[in-house]
Amino acid sequence: MQTIDEVLEEIPFFGGLKHEDLELIAGCGSNVHFEDGETLFREGGPADTFLLIRHGSVSLSCYAPPKGSVILDTVGPGDILGWSWLFPPHRWHFDAKAVGVVRATQFDAVCLRTKIEQDPRFGYELMRRFTQVLLQRLQWTRMRLIDMYADHT
Amino acid sequence: MQTTPETPTSAVSRPTSELTPRLFRVVKRRRETADTVTLELEPLDGKPFRIRPGQFNMLYAFGVGEIPVSVSGIEGRLVHTVRAVGAVSTAICEQKVGAVLGVRGPYGTAWPLEQALGSDLLFIAGGIGLAPLRPAIVHFLANHERYGSGVLLCGSRTPGEILFEREVERWAEHSSFDVDLSGVRHALTTYRTVDVAGPSWRGMVGPVPQMIPKAHLEMRSTVAFICGPEILIHFAAEALLTRGLPPRSIYVSLERNMRCGIGLCGHCQLGPTIICRDGPVYAYPDVEHLLEAREL
Amino acid sequence: MMNGAHDLADPVVLDPTGLDDLIAALRRRGFRVLGPRIADETISPAPVDGIDDLPAGWTDVQEPGSYRLERRTDDALFGYAVGPQSWKRELFPARLKLWSATRDANGEVAVEETPTEAQPTAFVGVRPCEVEAITIQDRIFLSGTFTDRDYGERRSAAFIVAVDCGDPASTCFCSSLGTGPATGGGFDLALTELLAHGHRFLVRIGSAAGQEILSDVETRPAVEQDFTDAADVLDRADAELRGRFDPSGVRNGLVRNSESPHWDDVASRCLGCANCTLVCPTCFCMSVEDRSSLAGDEATRTRVWDTCFSVGHSYIHGGSIRPSGRSRYRQWLTHKFATWQDQFGTSGCVGCGRCITWCPVGIDIREEVAAVMGRKEEHHADD
Fold first, then answer.
1. Residues B260, C148: contact at Cβ < 8 Å?
2. Between helices C365-372 and C325-334, what is the axis angle to 10°?
3. Would you call B234 an interface residue with chain A, using a CB distance cutoff of 8 Å?
4. CA proximity to B282, closest of B226, B234, B232, B229
5. How far is C312 from chain A (nearest CA, A)?
6. B288 - beta bridge partners?
7. Which pLDDT score is estimated for A65?
8. For C155-174, what is each residue's pLDDT tens digit?
9. Is residue C171 within 8 Å of residue C196, measured between CB atoms?
10. What is the ipTM for the molecules in this complex?
11. What are chain C's partners, defined as 3 or more CB pairs within 8 angstroms?
12. How far apart are CA B282 and CA B54, in angstroms?
């Protein structure tokens, strides 16, 4: 069974971080487990964590009447889930639900936010990585906006 | 009376003009989605027909017109899946069992299934693009011991707007190479994604290229076949190249306006290539620069 | 220049009466004879009974966007360049019914092909550039995996009497592309009209059929004066045509400059009227019209000329790939000079200049090609 920082070393998202940074992040992390259909967090709830999914799939949805609940995105193994913790008001924007059994490493954002305030260099390294993830996800979301399968006549 | 043209007249090998349709009857009809229908056809003259996965026929609706449609099934009957987007395709989609359609073909190039023997096959399908790939997938499944592994990445707009739904569900049941309890080895791993879904969807939500960085693929031995909207072909091919797939291992199916299907009417040109004659299946490096140009 | 490489036998000489007899001999053998005639203030192919129907003493004066006929000071029968219509109309008709079909009350369909209307036809007065254009269209319609049967039958039934060019128009540039002013191969008979030292025609024999027809007509062997006079005619034409277009590097140059701002410049002038594609002797785009009767029990398919200048040409479920005039002009010019070679192994242009003459705004493709490639055009030196 690997320790959390052994796991983190293998994840591309954390690649290139100094050893003491990885130790710090690992120190804020804990392993979590969700059953199929279990809610990870709800829209509007306090966003005090982010997760690294290690196994399984998580759906992100919002409730849009009269359609009802709409799944807007899914994340899978190796993906980082959650950036609402970075900026006030630190509230989740979507509901997140486990599709099948999900195993993840959950990171305490409150603990990390303090460290970011104290150490701008560390903050920059984290921000850089999160920005890259966001850019990639934005690009993929934009691809869906093309609505390429629709009939354009 | 004969002048001396510099090029000899080719012998006409078929008895009728290539612009005259052969007549086929609709023997089975299945609605796939709100705007897409699959028709199974048999020739009135009872003579055999040839067509290979990736090729297309020109289908004629009596009195309305003709459109190019890729073959979507070759197991005994001639099967075509048609999406109603214009007058002709709508007319074809409305044909009931017993109706007579005109067929000219087969035309165009085929998926290089012979060249890919021994390789792992990666099928990437977006929307109606699954139809031209289906005969290649079926061929792979029927001959899978002569190939490596098979992976299908399949995207549609919503969970319900998927072609061949039951067949895809059957394929998707098998998501590993493990031999199941019945002793059958399942060679095709299917991953589905949609643009948007309701709460009961258990697959991925995201564009097809998003599946590519994480798919279990061996780049050295994989050959990819991509079919779908041109923008999908572009993004998916780029994602494969980023992962290190050699460009010549990628094959794409292109389309343009076609009137004759036999390289004589000038409509389906894409720069230097004539799609009904040199395509629709191309090795990606041969058309990559053409896809980057706008309004070509 | 004089190229006897394709000749079957030694050249002979016909006087104008002999040409009249040649036309009569063709008609006796069942050929429909087409030759240049004045109609609608142009010189275009039409049925002729004899040399009296030919435009004796007339020439054409052509500029970008302008064409008019003028009287000559002599009686030359072929003293003009080219008219708006090429022989493409005969081999590749603008409208051709392909087949008709019926559907009965039970939905049973029957298709009946329309037999070809090809009849033996003699084309009299085919310019060297036009012979080359026919050769180019032969390549398209007859040498691929699929051939056009109607074209093949009309082609086999055609007898070609070419006539060298002695009076090129200002819009001609055949010699820059190696297609004139003398006829290369691909003819049954090739004439050079001589006016010095007596009105006569030097006749080169290009096929057994050509030789056979001449057996019905009085000719005499060609002598040195005939050859000298013919060389003079062609030398003069060559001198006039010199330097009108530089074809070197055009194929790659057009493809490389596909995003040149000059395309916007020509697009601002081009009306998209498609005259150029209609008069061009090599343009072959066609479409099919499917029609049915109101009752829905009869249907026909007709092959019709089409043009890449129409927005619908590139329409594909939902929109056109080439909606802008700029992209359509680029498509035509790039295809004609560059991608045609990739598709068929020859250039698409023969330098006949029709598109320049018949463009209502006088767009000159010699200038446009040079401008796209960033070259200074040179042909103005002669004007």
1. no
2. 100
3. no
4. B226
5. 14
6. none
7. 87
8. 999 999 999 999 999 999 99
9. no
10. 0.90
11. A, B
12. 10
Q: Is C239 exposed, middle or buried (0-12, 13-18, 19+ CB in 10 A)?
A: exposed
- C-alpha separations of C123 from B14, B29, B198 in Å: 30, 54, 71
Measured between beta carbons, the chain A residues lying within 8 angstroms of C319 are 152
CA distance C101 to B11: 26
**If chain C, 383 residues long, is cut into consecutive pieces of 10 residues, what is the mean pLDDT of each piece?**
65 96 97 97 97 97 97 97 96 96 94 93 97 97 94 96 96 95 94 96 96 94 96 96 94 95 96 96 96 92 96 88 94 96 95 97 96 74 41
Q: Which of residues 142-171 of C touch B (CB under 8 A)?
A: 142-150, 152, 155-160
Taking an 8 Å cut-off on Cβ atoms, the answer to whether B99 and C284 are in contact is no
Query: CB neighbours of B102 closer than 8 A, spacing ≥ 6?
Result: B21, B22, B23, B24, B58, B59, B60, B61, B62, B66, C101, C109, C111
Give which of A109, A49, A100 is closest to A74, Cα–Cα: A100
Report the amino acid identity of residue A21.
Answer: D
pLDDT tens digits, C294-329? 888 999 999 999 999 999 999 987 789 999 999 999
DSSP, residue by residue, A6-72: HHHHH-GGGTT--HHHHHHHHHTEEEEEE-TT-EEE-TTSB--EEEEEEEEEEEEEEEETTTEEEEE
Share of chain C above pLDDT 90, in %: 92
Summarised one tens digit per residue, pLDDT across range C223-242 is 999 999 999 999 999 999 99
Q: Are A73 and B206 in contact (CB < 8 Å)?
A: yes
The angle at the Cα of A121, spanning A119 to A122, to the nearest 5 degrees, equals: 70
Q: Which DSSP helix (H) or strand (E) runs through B236?
A: helix B230-242
**Cα–Cα separations (whole angstroms), residue B250 to A24, B289, C187:** 44, 14, 48
| Average pLDDT along chain C | 94
Sheet with B120-126, strands from edge to edge, namely B204-205, B188-194, B150-156, B120-126, B222-227, B250-253, B281-283
pLDDT of residue B214: 84
The two tokens of residue C54 are 């030919």
Residue A153 confidence (pLDDT): 62
**What distance in Å separates residue A94's CA from the closest CA in chain C?**
35
Residues 80-119 of B with CB under 8 A from A: 83, 85-86
In this prediction the pTM is 0.91
Chain C residue nearest residue A150, CA to CA: C318
To the nearest whole angstrom, how far is the Cα of B183 from the nearest Cα of chain A? Answer: 26
Say whether residue A153 is in contact with chain C using an 8 A CB cutoff. Answer: yes
Three-state secondary-structure class, residue B191:
strand
Residues of chain B with pLDDT below 50 are 1-14, 175-185
User: What does the alpha-carbon distance between residue C326 and residue C331 come to, in Å, rounded to a whole number?
Assistant: 9
The letter for the amino acid at A82 is G
Q: Which residues pair with A108 in a beta bridge?
A: A49
A108: which residues sit within 8 A by CB, 6+ positions away? A28, A29, A30, A48, A49
Phi, psi of C214, rounded to the nearest 5 degrees: -65, -20
pLDDT of residue A84: 92
- Which residues are within 8 A (CB) of A106 and not within 5 positions of it... i.e. 6 or more apart? A29, A30, A31, A32, A49, A50, A51
Token digits of residue C254: 């057009």
**Nearest one of C25, C29, C34, C215 to C122, comparing CA atoms:** C34
